[in-house]
């Protein structure tokens, strides 16, 4: 009888222990759940809000055309924006979607037709806002396989000109590709050099300033000097860290007198590599009309075969054919 009572008491003790364990486990789970629920609002409060994408204007970085007219046009914009390449302010050459970094590359499906055109950009951002490029690209595609010219500049023609592609420029390791100046003689220069090259500029051996080529091998500078009308020697030096000259290029440069009597749309600023023949072919469609430009500017052209970058020519609106 006593053995039965002891066994019963043992079973009661075991059962009590099991019930106590289950109760403590439930209480622990409830406490943990309560702590978790209390911690979640605090975690939510510390979460950083998502960064809002800042819209940026579309811009050109690269414009390259091979002798057959096949083009590669690339640039930057707001990430995930739809970018349209516009020809002449109206015709849409095509569109492309920018990637997560805002970079885009447009490859026209057909070769560009010969002639002169002005390219601009229009981007539709992810928030449906529309932005246009500040700069345009003046593009000259020759009628036959030959030199292609691509210059990036502001829409109003002020500020520096950046040469994206110049005749024969691909073979040069250092070059002065574009020159420009305002009515006061403030210069804007650009060219090509090896990536991250230090470039020093001089006008008749007088130091103008220095700059560094970017990762695409382009440099530009707007020296804080004014240049009086006249003919000069413009020099660019590629130097190392000890300012030792590694390469040098020199071109003649002419700052013209102000031509206030000539409308702005009839002025032509001579660029490196230009000739009267090439200018006439660009303006009139044939180089044989170079004499028209020569006769209109005889006072500043002593030799039709010798013109200087920086000269400003009056371009007659119509070609007067000789009888």
What brief labels describe this structure?
323 residues; alpha+beta; Immunoglobulin-like; Membrane-bound Lytic Murein Transglycosylase D, Chain A; 3 domains; seven-stranded antiparallel sheet; four-stranded antiparallel sheet; 3 helices; 19 strands
How is this structure best described in words?
The structure is a single chain. It is built from three helices and 19 strands. The chain has 323 residues and is α+β, with helices and mostly antiparallel strands. The protein has three domains: 54-157, Immunoglobulin-like (Sandwich), CATH 2.60.40.10; 170-255, Immunoglobulin-like (Sandwich), CATH 2.60.40.10; 264-314, Membrane-bound Lytic Murein Transglycosylase D, Chain A (Roll). The strands form five sheets. Strands 3, 4, 6, 7, 8, 9 and 10 form a seven-stranded antiparallel sheet that branches. Strands 14-13-16-17 form a four-stranded antiparallel sheet, with no helix packed on it. A hairpin with a 2-residue loop joins strand 13 and strand 14 (206-212). The termini are far apart.
